[in-house]
Every structure is written in C-alpha cells, then in structure tokens.
Write a structure and sequence with these properties.
132 residues; alpha+beta; two-stranded antiparallel sheet
C-alpha cells in the first residue's frame, strides 16, 4: 500500500580530559578517551523538552542537536559546581549519527463489513464461485 523512509540526525554528547589522570565528574569517570556523557540515568532528562522526532531519537539513545548541547553544558556546569578545578581540562564534543526510519504499510485482512444500518455484510468468500 505504501512504503516510506526518513533520515534524521541524532547526537550523543561525549567528554574526555586532557589531564594526565582520570577523575570523577558528575558521577562518571572521565579519562583521555572520548566517552558518552552519562545522562540516561536521569529520569527527567533535566526538563529538556522533546518533540516528535526527538522522541524517535531517544528510542535509539540519541538526542536532537539542541538537547545534546544542553546536556553538554549541563555536564560542564555540574563539573564547575563540584569544585573550582573540576571543569579544567574537560573537553566535550557531539558525536553525530544518521538515523534512518522506514515504514511499510500492507493490507492484511478485511474485517467484518457493515451496511449503513450496522448489519453484517455477507462474507465475500461465501459468494465466490468454487474453483475447479
């Protein structure tokens, strides 16, 4: 009946440090390797609103650009709040992903037909002539 596909961009904020020793920042270890910022254990996502496609991205652990930026800066602000030097040497980036969403709609079966009075229509298979 119909088929379709859409592609959208999703993002994951990541963090690392240029400091020679790992440290604990906002409940996660930050070292010299780019790692996703751990925000998913926060049930409210910090009150960041989500639109229709943002919700589709979230199903795949991705964020919109605005949401990813908000979480990036939340992480840095949290580091600042934890101590005067916690945000020093932090580096952040947004990892971009391409999400392809496809759909296919096909008829499966025609269910109980009714006339305008709500009476059941005859079963179309009963009016077919038998095949030889």
């Amino acid at each position: 009946m119909s088929n379709g596909q859409t592609t959208c961009r999703g993002y994951r904020p990541e963090v690392r440090t240029s400091y020679h020793k790992p440290s604990m920042v906002s409940g996660q270890i930050v070292d010299s390797v780019w790692r996703p910022i751990n925000y998913e254990n926060r049930s409210d996502h910090f009150g960041i609103p989500a639109g229709y496609f943002d919700k589709k991205l979230t199903e795949h652990h991705l964020l919109s650009l605005a949401q990813a930026e908000a979480i990036r800066w939340w992480f840095i602000a949290n580091a600042d709040a934890e101590g005067p030097a916690k945000s020093l040497c932090l580096e952040t980036r947004l990892q971009e992903y391409s999400l392809q969403i496809t759909h296919s709609v096909k008829p499966v079966a025609a269910l109980r037909g009714l006339d305008s009075q709500g009476r059941a229509l005859p079963d179309p298979s009963s009016t077919l002539e038998p095949q030889p």
